[in-house]
Structure prediction request, 221 residues.
Amino acid sequence: NAALAHYRPSNGSSRTLSAREMYLFDTGGQYLDGTTDITRTVHWGEPTPFQKEAYTRVLMGNIDLSHLVFPSNTAGRMVESFARRALWDVGLNYGHGTGHGIGNFLSVHEWPVGFQSNNVPLEAGMFTSIEPGYYQDGEFGIRIEDVALVVEAQTEKPFLTFEVVSLVPYDRNLIDLSLLSPEQIRYLNSYYERIRAHVGPELRRQQLEEAHAWLQENTEP
Prediction:
């Protein structure tokens, strides 16, 4: 049912999970110290070559926008196409926004931050989601969503970039490494190192050894 980007479950449309198809889970919660909104797509069996390519191109778009460096006072709509470029290269696209503002223990979709034409320019301190996707009617849906903080870039003049604060591995089973650039692979490895450094000790503190072993396996270089 994830082929419908904004699917809502009902008794008539619910389905049994299967290892033979892709599964998209859009997760989140509101806590006293913040709000989360994270989407991951997985396949527990053997994905088709097209499923792997589509997923990888969505991931490429997520990476390209997440580590983009851009001038201060830039509107989100001016950089939104970086999340779509890898899909556009092969004639694919998605029919929803690339991201939205996220409140601190407030609204999960918080106006006026985002990447649409009527959103305000990005400023340091803003939180936004970055969530490219791809949806094949009647077959499968892909979305990779992270929460990112707008921060000052390490540049001589005042530029901005994003710091991804969602620390959840991507599905290795769906990544076609041959499509990724060396720079995108370096980004992934750096991201996985951050996940290990921040999440690993917390899992150990809670004595969640099975989860810790899973994390180590899924954050290998």
